[in-house]
Amino acid sequence: MALLAGCFYWWPKMFGRTLDERLGKWTFWTFYPGFHLTFLVQHFLGLMGMPRRVFTYLDGQGWNTMNLVSTIGAFLMAIGVIIFLVNVFKTAAKPADAPSDPWDGRTLEWSLPTPVPEYNFRQLPLVRGLDAWWLEKREGRTHMTPAEPPGPIHMPSPSSLPIWMSVALFIAAIGFMYAKEPFSAGFVRFLFENYIVGIGGLAMFFTCMIIRSLKDDHGYHIHPEEAEGEAAHQ
Q1: How far apart, in whole angstroms, are the C-alpha atoms of residue 127 and residue 134?
Q2: Of 24, 36, 76, 123, whose Cβ has the fewest other Cβ atoms within 10 Å?
Q3: How confident is the model at residue 19 (pLDDT cuts 50, 70, 90)?
Q4: Domain extent listing, the chain
Q5: How crowded is residue 199: how many other Cβ atoms within 10 Å of its Cβ?
Q6: Are 147 and 124 in contact (CB under 8 A)?
């Protein structure tokens, strides 16, 4: 539920497009009640003696009606997710013309252009209090007051190593979780029960970590003229 709300809130800043408000309301009025119908009643079923994580149960224990309510809620949640996905695909076809501050925000991120440039701020902003962007707007400014003169922006070089490290940890986790799983295929069972998959994932992870630690990467700089050109283009 929080994830869907966050998507609607942050979508303009991430992709430069504002999701359809009417479809957003339909998402809310299907997913939000569905969420509570699905999970709230489960607390009461637990108090009535129903165990967790069971997919079936005997009839005549007084659990049928509340489980039916929970199932209806799950269908409502599914409808809400489908409407949200329709909204995403519909919005993807629109031009990226969302304003930089569509919600009249209070915090620094809403002072940035939309979509946000890779370097975020061309100059470090002057933060004079809580809700710094709101303070600037109250004083009639349309941009954050800079705290330093313009200068070159140091950027890290792009790297695929963090992605591979995440993949390696995923492989290691799968390998250790299913090490005792009785796989029908002998070769697969051999790989898992001898911890070859788990240890292989860890070896891949630490190899990437060593490469990332020892590689001397000085990054690159975006000069003020380039940043100003990008800002004018946006």
Answers
A1: 11
A2: 36
A3: confident
A4: 2-92, 161-214
A5: 13
A6: yes
> CA nearest 9: which of 35, 27, 33?
27
Residue with tokens 């975006």: 222
Measure the CA–CA gap between 61 and 67, rounded to whole angstroms. Answer: 11
CA-CA distance, 49 to 62, in Å (whole number)? Answer: 10
- Under DSSP, is residue 1 helix (H, G, I), strand (E, B) or coil? coil
Q: What percent of the chain has pLDDT over 90?
A: 37
Residue 222, SS3 per DSSP: strand
| Amino acid type, 5 | A
pLDDT tens for residues 22-81? 999 999 999 999 999 999 999 998 888 888 877 788 788 888 898 899 999 999 999 999
Report which secondary-structure segment, H or E, holds 220: strand 220-222
